[in-house]
Write a structure and sequence with these properties.
single chain, 221 residues, alpha/beta, 9 helices, binds pyridoxal-5'-phosphate
Amino acid sequence: MKNTVITNNVKELLAVLPADVELVAAAKARSTEEILEAVSAGVKVIGENYIQEAEAALKEIGHGVRWHFIGHLQKNKVKKAAELFDMIETLDDVTTAEALNRNCANIGKVMPVLVEVNSGREAQKSGVFPEKVLEFVKTISGLSNISVKGLMTMGPFSGDPEEARPFFKETKKIFDILKKAHLANVEMRYLSMGMTNSYKVAIEEGANVVRIGTRIFGERD
Ligand SMILES: *Cc1c(COP(=O)(O)O)cnc(C)c1O
């Protein structure tokens, strides 16, 4: 039996998202069956936080859809990540970038990446601090088997999407500065911000990729 809730959720979302905004279905802790239903309903990009979960789902679903890594990338998982994903949204560390570059070179792949911005400047969170993003992008732009395609941010957690707005604004500002900088091997094309509670605000502030889990699949257990 199909869980028609997921189908309806995807259709409702796709109907309200502007045509130039890409929907990434954030699939952590969801079954392959649930992901497949979202795909049948029109989802074209799956976001995965965990390599093992991604590997299991990918085996069943394949590369007819695109797979984005949206979790924290650990150095010991870089080889797998290089093999499995079509984009890494969360690059924030030079050593990891170099390891990813090496692993991509080994398999003859150029990996599109987004740089994760720690827009809330939270010490315990992943991401490059806003004032360090330009320098970070310059440093990794010389790596020929990864290709910077934009920025991603989470923003500090809050129930109120309006509280996320200043952090989205700041990330968009950095995005525009980088775009104007015209760095070699860097294309500022994707700005990934906004989740279930904040995607509308994120789009108002310039996001063209939104990562949505709960609004598609329901609350996580
Ligand atoms: C889980 C997750 C999302 C989606 O969160 P929801 O609130 O369920 O929409 C988006 N981005 C990342 C990085 C996530 O881990």
